């Protein structure tokens, strides 16, 4: 079977994607891929932002913090309230994270099967991959706990030390606090990149091993290390190519998304203008109804935008698992036998024609 490099695997993955998603267009399959892409986060190309740092530093000459002080109308918001709010948010985040991870873990195998076979049924796949998904869920919990512990050690602990040393407060921070948090944040960012690489290795290569050999994540990682031994450069190139492909897919996806969103936004803007025109001089009852309708309309708009983004990203959700499969198939024999099946044996040569014996002539009359 062929062992494809990171660049050579692009063409068959692209061909497989165009065949299954466009040439054999099936709206139901496209919709299922959109759902799988949304819950496994394969449709997204990443993004994020950075917050703003305070710019008012303590005045050392005055012996007190001259940074931004707590506004008078927020004087009631004490550190105790902040602690209670943080605890409530933490509980909510933990519960939500567990739910998302569980759904993601089981649907990850459904997505792998869908790309490998070219079709899937969500309900059937959800039941089929229950055990494998639960084993992968345990791995994802472990990875999440590690990431949270690193976050606490890299950012939480320095912040606590700065707070105890009066370099950081609820409404102020000095230059030492900013420098410390920046360095700690950069260090955590480096560790987050390492965790991201581990996560990609797990979903691209360990998941196929777990699926095809029905093993847990420990044995899956062990098998992967055996396969990848001595091929580190191939996987580095794979990661670099995947970054480039993600950027390209994100640009195309964004351009298409802008046009589609404009189609959705124009009617929404017209509806807002009409609502404002109706609300001018209207009674309080009418205004309350318009506000309620606006909130409902906003929720519908958000849902539509998410749904449209998932539908637009369906081919992306198919392509990247396909790319991983074609890259890994030549290195993992069980997967390779499915992706590159051996050619059928040549037909057997025709049996030689044996002439039938001539019938014996009738005996001559005496």
From TrEMBL:
Keyword line: Membrane, Transmembrane, Transmembrane helix
InterPro entries: DUF7544
Transmembrane feature ranges: 29-50, 82-103, 136-163, 175-202
Name of the protein: Transmembrane protein
Organism of provenance: Koribacter versatilis (strain Ellin345)
Pfam family, one: DUF7544
């Amino acid at each position: 079977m062929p062992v494809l490099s990171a660049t050579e695997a692009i063409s068959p993955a692209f061909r497989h994607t165009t065949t299954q998603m466009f040439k054999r267009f099936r709206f139901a399959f496209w919709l299922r891929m959109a759902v799988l892409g949304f819950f496994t986060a394969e449709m997204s190309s990443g993004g994020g932002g950075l917050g703003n740092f305070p710019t008012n530093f303590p005045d050392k000459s005055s012996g007190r913090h001259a940074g931004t002080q707590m506004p008078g109308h927020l004087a009631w918001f004490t550190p105790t309230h902040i602690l209670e709010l943080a605890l409530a948010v933490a509980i909510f985040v933990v519960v939500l994270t567990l739910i998302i991870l569980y759904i993601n873990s089981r649907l990850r195998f459904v997505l792998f099967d869908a790309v490998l076979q070219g079709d899937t049924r969500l309900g059937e796949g959800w039941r089929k991959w229950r055990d494998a998904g639960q084993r992968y869920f345990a791995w994802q919990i472990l990875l999440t706990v590690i990431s949270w512990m690193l976050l606490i050690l890299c950012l939480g602990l320095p912040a606590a030390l700065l707070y105890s040393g009066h370099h950081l407060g609820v409404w102020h921070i000095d230059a030492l606090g900013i420098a410390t948090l920046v360095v700690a944040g950069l260090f955590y960012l480096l560790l987050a990149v390492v965790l991201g690489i581990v996560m990609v290795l797990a979903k691209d290569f360990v998941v196929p091993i777990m699926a095809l050999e029905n093993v847990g994540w420990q044995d899956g990682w062990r098998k992967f290390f055996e396969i990848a031994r001595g091929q580190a450069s191939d996987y580095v190139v794979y990661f670099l190519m995947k970054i480039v492909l993600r950027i390209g897919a994100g640009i195309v996806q964004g351009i298409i998304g802008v046009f589609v969103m404009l189609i959705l936004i124009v009617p929404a803007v017209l509806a807002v203008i009409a609502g404002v025109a109706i609300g001018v001089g209207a009674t309080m009852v009418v205004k309350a109804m318009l506000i309620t309708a606006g909130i409902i309309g906003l929720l519908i708009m958000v849902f539509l935008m998410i749904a449209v983004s998932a539908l637009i990203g369906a081919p992306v959700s198919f392509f990247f698992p396909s790319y991983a499969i074609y890259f890994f198939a030549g290195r993992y024999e069980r997967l390779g036998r499915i992706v590159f099946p051996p050619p059928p044996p040549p037909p057997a040569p025709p049996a030689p024609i044996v002439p039938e014996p001539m019938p014996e002539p009738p005996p001559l009359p005496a």
